[in-house]
Amino acid sequence: MTTMKRVLVLAGDGIGPEVVREALRVIDWIDRRRHVPFDVQQGEVGGAAIDAHGTPLADATMALAQEADAVLLGAVGGPKWDALPFAQRPERGLLRLRKELQLYANLRPATVFAPLVDASTLKPEIVRGLDLMIVRELTGGIYFGEPRGIELLPDGQRRGINTQVYTTSEIHRVGRVAFDLARKRGSKVCSADKANVMESGRLWREEIQKLRDESYSDVELEHMYADAVAMELLRRPNRFDVIVTDNLFGDILSDEAAMMTGSLGMLPSASLGDQRADGGRKALYEPVHGSAPDIAGKDLANPIATILSLSMMLRWSFDMHTEADLIEQAVEGVLASGTRTGDIMAPGMARVSTTVMGDSILHELDKLSA
Ligand SMILES: NC(=O)c1ccc[n+]([C@@H]2O[C@H](COP(=O)([O-])OP(=O)(O)OC[C@H]3O[C@@H](n4cnc5c(N)ncnc54)[C@H](O)[C@@H]3O)[C@@H](O)[C@H]2O)c1
Ligand SMILES: CC(C)[C@H](C(=O)O)[C@@H](O)C(=O)O
Ligand SMILES: [Mg+2]
């Protein structure tokens, strides 16, 4: 018997609802055409939740996320809520979900689809065939460290404080995810830190090395400073297989990696917690991009990052590899046919809206499974 897949959908703000709408159509397609029943609930996060409930994530929505098999999120934030105090900003809703669901391993694959080789601002020979995975630590580091805040000094100046902090177990658990992934890929891990200037970076390096020596001696490990990784990503991105890094460096390096693929609108992500004894795990899937206020509400956004995030959900939460492969093939097929949203546009191609990109992917799915 096929069990019901319980998915909580939090579309969020800006282009969030537009890109999520297209992913929902793909869920509906799988439900109808592949006979896999989905139970989709919807809720608010970010600015939408502030407007509806006065908080970026209501406790009731948090409880729904705890109960769901997986969460699909669009994006949060926007100018309307930018002036709010820090603890009430839309982004806090997303950070609360990550922290309370203990989604410490954030997988951000950067893959260059062959038809998009020319969409990158880098030369085709640099990005062709790129297939790298950034594993970003997501529940620790400077994003959550204490003390934090803005304080007034006696001389009238203000001082902003954030604290970078990691423990051995936090480093080991995300390290394990990276090494396990590397074993299924090119067996190479690059760990990015600032061990030359930060104690937490030194600990990171020592503990990743210890983990590798004790449990993953078959995997090649190199350590690099995060700034050098930023440079190497532009110079020779294909040298990387899996990059494991902390919360802040991972945030920055994944936006950089996204641009290899042509656009932020192409990069999906999975945020995973520990695997339970029954094989399941808490998980949230979201595009790497934000709410893109500059193009919101205009049917211009690229929905592919969100649709590929759904494909990651099928793989990581539901073991539905055939359907995940189908979605990726459909995306590749649509790109090969020259259908493009504005962000991945190239001369001679057809510029389409968010909705038409969704239509095209559904049409391709129909063709592939005919
Ligand atoms: N996970 C998230 O929800 C998330 C991630 C990043 C930023 N944000 C928030 O989003 C807001 C805007 O941030 P930003 O402008 O720095 O980043 P952004 O990712 O929203 O936009 C950066 C640029 O990329 C373009 N872009 C992004 N996604 C696109 C898509 N799917 N299709 C086509 N073009 C796309 C935008 O038009 C913009 O020019 C802020 O409030 C920020 O905090 C949220
Ligand atoms: C919106 C923001 C909190 C978030 C982050 O910094 O983690 C975003 O940039 C991301 O990459 O998911
Ligand atoms: Mg980011």
From TrEMBL:
Pathway, according to UniProt? Amino-acid biosynthesis; L-leucine biosynthesis; L-leucine from 3-methyl-2-oxobutanoate: step 3/4
**Chain positions recorded as substrate binding sites:** 98, 108, 136, 227
Assign the protein's first listed, main location to one coarse class. Answer: cytoplasm
Write out the entry's keywords from A to Z. Answer: Amino-acid biosynthesis, Branched-chain amino acid biosynthesis, Cytoplasm, Leucine biosynthesis, Magnesium, Manganese, Metal-binding, NAD, Oxidoreductase
For binding NAD(+), which residues are annotated in this chain's numbering?
78-91, 290-302
The scientific name of the source species is Roseiterribacter gracilis
Domain (Isopropylmalate dehydrogenase-like): give its ranges: 6-361
Q: How is the cofactor bound?
A: Binds 1 Mg(2+) or Mn(2+) ion per subunit.
Please name the top-level EC class of this enzyme: oxidoreductase
**Protein name, please?**
3-isopropylmalate dehydrogenase
Q: Which gene encodes it?
A: leuB
The site annotation (Important for catalysis) covers: 143, 194
Where, by residue number, does Mg(2+) bind?
Answer: 227, 251, 255
